[in-house]
Amino acid sequence: MKLEGLVGFVTGGASGLGAETVKQLVAAGVKVTFGDLNSENGEALVKELGEDKAKFLELDVTDEKAVEAAIKTCVDTFGGLHIAVNCAGIAAVGQTITSKSMMSFSTMRLVTEINVFGTIYVAAHAAKAMSKNKPVNDRGERGVIINVASVAAYEGQRGQVSYSASKGAIVGITTPMARDLGRFGIRVVAIAPGTIMSPMLAAQTDKMKNLLLKDTPLGRFGEADEFAHMVRSCVENSYLNGVTLRMDGGTVLSYS
Ligand SMILES: NC(=O)c1ccc[n+]([C@@H]2O[C@H](COP(=O)([O-])OP(=O)(O)OC[C@H]3O[C@@H](n4cnc5c(N)ncnc54)[C@H](O)[C@@H]3O)[C@@H](O)[C@H]2O)c1
To answer: Is the model's pLDDT at 208 over the cut of 90?
Structure first.
């Protein structure tokens, strides 16, 4: 799909990869509604981009009814929905057991609620809205849903049981969701980023950041603009579907 003139919905759009995605989509001529818990950052980004091009909604993606309402607001405000990008997510650390402790199952539940249920609520309600679009081109395209996994889906580090489980789920849902939605002209793609500089990565200890850099053949972390570029490519390439694409500079996470 050509980006110009489309309408997008981005979760986690007030920070990091989501915020850069909002900016690049708007720069490409897409009208974007974005939801996040962080209303201060969200409102500031709308001021920067212009209210005619971007709309912020305070949104908790674990609230399915709120997700449904947010997507309705997006459609009512900008006249449709063609691109949904699921950037809202949290990381959590906790080893299965140590000599003194056990991982927190309530944390695992929260990670799953946000990273997995949040993604599926948005994808399902976005798909419903997209299914009502007229095809935007002669390939019958009505929309694309972009989910965000992680290389931790494949080689999670020590302490990443909860996070890796949630990102493995994103890899897992991508193919069946694409199979469900293909007949509506809706594609589903997941991006599995490596280590991309963002507030989430910045919050890691220096020791962890140095370990991560050693796993990266390019010797640097990725940048949010490289992720957002990948999002644009996923929208533009009409034959990308049902696949999780690693965008990691060749990173393979090591043992710890
Ligand atoms: N940065 C990386 O290296 C990296 C690598 C792999 C995957 N990812 C994934 O990319 C996505 C974006 O990460 P980021 O690095 O930009 O992190 P970030 O912390 O900068 O941004 C995440 C955003 O999600 C929002 N959010 C959290 N819980 C929410 C909820 N319940 N409802 C709505 N919004 C909520 C936060 O407020 C925040 O603005 C996440 O899913 C993350 O797991 C990031």
So the answer is: no
Banded pLDDT at 201 (limits 50, 70, 90): confident
Query: In angstroms, what is the span from residue 112 Cα to ligand 1's centroid?
Result: 13
Q: How far apart are CA 204 and CA 200, in angstroms?
A: 7
Query: Is residue 256 predicted with pLDDT exceeding 70?
Result: no
- Residue 138 placed within a domain: yes
Let me know if residue 57 belongs to a domain. Answer: yes
198 vs 150: CA distance, rounded Å:
14
From the list 121, 154, 163, 239, the catalytic residue is 163
Q: Does residue 157's CB lie within 6 angstroms of at least one atom of ligand 1?
A: no
Specify the CATH number for the domain of residue 97: 3.40.50.720
In this structure, the chain runs to a length of 256
Distance 138 CA to ligand 1 centre (A): 35
d(CA 115, CA 146): 13
Q: Is 247 helix (H, G, I), strand (E, B) or coil?
A: strand
- Give the separation between CA 217 and CA 26, rounded to whole angstroms: 32
Q: Does the active-site annotation cover 154?
A: no
Find the 183 Cα to ligand 1 centroid distance in Å.
Answer: 30
- Assess if residue 14 is contained within a domain: yes
Say if residue 245's pLDDT is above 90: yes
**Backbone phi, then psi, for 191, in 5-degree steps?**
-110, 130
Confidence (pLDDT) at 53: 98
**Which residue shows structure tokens 């709308």?**
46
